[in-house]
């Protein structure tokens, strides 16, 4: 299988690899796995005032398309509110990276990772939403 230029770019120069300290203010984590292939993706968001995502990091154990998808979404979520981040669709990721049909689930993994991270954020901050 040949990868697209954009996949190779993100694969060879992944953006925002790593993780935040769990104790850091506003950090939420989404960890998801793809049953189809066993790949695992961890996406962390650092959310500031007003629910705006200030920074994002990822660690992905998986194929080039999964790494490229997670690298791409760390760029896309920055500056968005958590609600806006939920609007990122796997189809947009697949289109941007020109993923072939067999690699569509890699982009779904990235969408799921965003949802999981936002859910974690909401769970942690539920107490602050009230009042
Ligand atoms: Fe092997 Fe994703 S299926 S790395
Ligand atoms: Fe399974 Fe890419 S995430 S092959």
TrEMBL record:
CDD domains: IscU_like. Gene3D superfamilies: 3.90.1010.10. InterPro entries: ISCU (IPR011339), NIF_FeS_clus_asmbl_NifU_N (IPR002871). One of its GO terms (biological process) is iron-sulfur cluster assembly. One of its GO terms (molecular function) is iron ion binding. GO terms for cellular component: cytoplasm. Residues 3-126 form the NIF system FeS cluster assembly NifU N-terminal domain. Pfam families: NifU_N. Signal peptide: none annotated. A scaffold on which IscS assembles Fe-S clusters. It is likely that Fe-S cluster coordination is flexible as the role of this complex is to build and then hand off Fe-S clusters. Belongs to the NifU family. This is Iron-sulfur cluster assembly scaffold protein IscU. It comes from Accumulibacter regalis. The gene is nifU_2.
């Amino acid at each position: 299988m040949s990868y697209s230029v954009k996949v190779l770019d993100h694969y060879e120069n992944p953006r925002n690899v790593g993780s935040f300290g769990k104790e850091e203010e506003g950090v939420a984590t989404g960890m998801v796995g793809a049953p189809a292939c066993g790949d695992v993706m961890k996406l962390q968001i650092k959310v500031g005032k007003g629910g705006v995502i200030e920074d994002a990091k990822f660690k992905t154990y998986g194929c080039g398309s999964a790494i490229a998808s997670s690298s791409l979404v760390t760029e896309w979520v920055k500056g968005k509110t958590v609600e806006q981040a939920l609007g990122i669709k796997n189809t947009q990721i697949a289109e941007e990276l020109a993923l072939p049909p067999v690699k569509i689930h890699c982009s779904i993994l990235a969408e799921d990772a965003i949802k999981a991270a936002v859910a974690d954020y909401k769970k942690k901050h539920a107490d602050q939403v009230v009042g």
